Automatic annotation (TrEMBL):
Its cofactor is thiamine diphosphate; Mg(2+). This is Pyruvate dehydrogenase E1 component. Pfam families: PDH_E1_M, Transketolase_C_1, Transketolase_N. It comes from Tessaracoccus oleiagri. InterPro entries: PDC_E1_N (IPR035807), PDH/Transketolase (IPR051157), PDH_E1 (IPR004660), PDH_E1_M (IPR041621), THDP-binding (IPR029061), Transketo_C/PFOR_II (IPR009014), Transketolase-like_C_2 (IPR055152), Transketolase_N (IPR005474). GO terms for molecular function: magnesium ion binding; pyruvate dehydrogenase (acetyl-transferring) activity.
Amino acid sequence: MTQNEAGPILNGLPTNLPDTDVEETLEWLESLDGVIDEGGRHRARYVMLKLLERARERQIGVPSLTGTDYVNTIPVGQEPSFPGDEDLERGIRRLLRWNAAIMVHRAQRPGIGVGGHIASYASSATLYEVGMNHFFRGKDHPGGGDQVYFQGHASPGMYARAYLAGRLTEDDLDGFRQEHSHYVDGKLRALPSYPHPRQMPKFWEFPTVSMGLGPINAIYQAQFNRYLHNRGIKDTSQQHVWAFLGDGEMDEVESRGALQLAANEELDNLTFVINCNLQRLDGPVRGNGKIMQELEAFFRGAGWNVIKVVWGRGWDPLLANDTEGALLNLMNSVSDGDYQTFKANDGAYVRKHFFERDPRTAAMVKDWSDEDIWRLSRGGHDYHKVYSAYKAATEFTGAPTVVLAHTIKGYFLGKHFAGRNATHQMKKLALDDLKSLRDRVQVPISDEQLESDPYRPPYVHPGKDDPRIKYLHERRRELGGYLPERRADRKFISLPGDKAYESSRKGSGKQEVATTMAFVRLLKDLMRDKQFAPRVVPIIPDEARTFGMDAFFPTIKIYNPHGQNYTPVDHELFLSYREAKDGQIIHTGINEAGSVAAFTAAGTSYATHGEPMVPIYVFYSMFGFQRTGDGMWAAADQLARGFYIGATAGRTTLAGEGTQHMDGHSPVIASTNPAIVAYDPAYGYEIAHIVRRGLERMYGEQPEDVSYYLTVYNEPIVQPKEPEDLDVEGVLRGMYLLRKGDFEGVGEDARRAQILVSGVAVPWGLEAQELLKKDFGVVADVWSVTSWTELRREGLELERKSFDEPFADHGKSWVEQKLEGAPGPVVASSDYTTTLPDMIRQWVPADYSVLGADEFGFSDTRAAARRYFKIDGPSIAVRVLQRLAAAGEVPEEWATRAAEQYKIQDVTAGTSGNAGGDA
């Protein structure tokens, strides 16, 4: 077999079967060629899929093609000619390699020592530069800009390119990783370590260094591009999503977990470029195996188009002369660990340990020098091979493409870097390394310059009139502008008026409605605004019926790019399951990670597309910040806006579900994210005011880069009408007086107390208020705390101000303003851990006690669970009496009697809350 013939199907039957009718076989092949020539690749693909389908129906035993030889996917004869100026592009790459390495090296100078990563960009420079010069479209391209997910550890290369383009200065480069401390002439000149849009909002577009999130976010970005197109909001047909990833990164669950979605939706607007330098951070990815082959099989099995770029042009004549397949066999059998070691040595080592494994391959290079062998390159460093792969990827239709590019970590940096296990952690170059790199990249720097200050080698910019710089600008002008670049707030949307909130503020009459359903009803009212409604992107994992959102199915429908090609089993029902090409709901299935990725794409559309969208992601609260908090952090870094709705919230409220569903801590975790505005509302009217304020803050005339998180519950209660004297400011700032204590029937000298409760616990506070007055003559005020976290943030902000200006009057926190002078002890309770109400302790100007559900959740009735944790109404009342007794205001016997009367130690005696009930 020669290299001009088709390779064997490595994991299939054809290699084991004789050709019993050669002429017929040729006729079949000619027929396929005819279909391709006449009907095109799309038609040929359809016919082949139908043939495979029929073959499986007839039980022929045809396998899927998931593995091919360890050679380039695109044969030499099918490679297009390279359209660029090879000499100028080579010169640009050399300048970039030098400046990127020197930026990191200078950041490791004495007194700074913040380091960086040199080796990742060194291995991927060609992969980026072919894209930058020929494929990646900027924001000003007539067809719209591409979205490029740059690999986080390659950021030095992007800064180096921006420096050559005049977008950054030497002072900026010297501020690498010194975001608050590098001042030049009184002006902060600094660069974040990795792609951080929040830190550099006009430059970076996608945060990617939280490894594993880049791949899944890129997939959902490509899906969202199609979503916008299919819904008629924007023509995204010419926009492409590129994600640059590492082979080690592909071990992350999120990296591979959504591949099937991209194939199912035929996202041919998506290309993954995986830099297969065979190394993780500490050593080989698959020392005993072959990661490129593994990834090829995985992606092919998931339905992706796979293009391998394994070998550079120097290997082409060797492979062409490999008539017996000896070299091919070597390439297939050598492990990644050995390939890594080859490039950490020299040509003589490669000759001995690679070519001399087989006398036939040894003979192929017997007349070659060791230097000739050493110059044989990996495909990811060959711009011809990379260009061929990218061109094929952008022209492929019907499926996403992954380009697997074989590279060397630390390539071009010298023998101390290339292929070494420690190369990822190497942050500076020795003097000899600097000199050697200077010689290889051919920059005009003398030995004396390097020796005079080895910690600060000069950057190199040949000037704006240099042919290389002119070429760089020309290519980017033709492609639509510079990358990376982020633009924001180019369009504003009309927000709903007062009418949309009227129903929520009226209450539910006699009907019991949980706050989850109260929110859904509000959403329905908001969706009646014809200008606002198209901007809403409801995102639901496979729990729409749990949240009462199935009513949206037949109206705004579920997004499916293929439409609904079947008759749903419930088609005769009013609430039938409906999918449509222009559907509005993104239904991700049982996929919280994918839902957050979809939220991120929609919540940043105002910047990536200039089309503000309002994602509203409704989910089991336990599966939000606990399971997908990392994705939410990345969304915050990307400056996403929208609403996270933690439904079925609380540690005791989701009756019967048990530990893995009982959320007693999500507001606590939410408080750690500075871009999340978290609320725990009790009533529908509170939700209405919070949502309205959220829309104004995120989508109003001065939009803020925040997202709102609301916990809502599935326990039905009568939703009260909004009080006429409602303290709206208190609702939004975090607490307000819900019900003042009543002195009727008791003396004016009655003992006093303050009860702080949030969310589903508010009725328990009201219950405690009644018990205290009825049984002990104690008058308590009940406060609805809509946001413990916002109260805490305000208090901390005032403390920061007082630290900077210790003798200025900064005013008092909202907690202090509301509780100052309020009589009696303060007792707080919620359906979360004690950590949540304890957040405001330092600002409560009185004796303060908190109750909470600090253990694991469990399956039981709501009343029993609340009694077990001692957070229910009677428990609040007992705690109030205990604190009054401790202050000497009531006899200790009162507290003891109350505990016995309410059977506080008897779990079966709990009465706070409804049993059962739908959301």
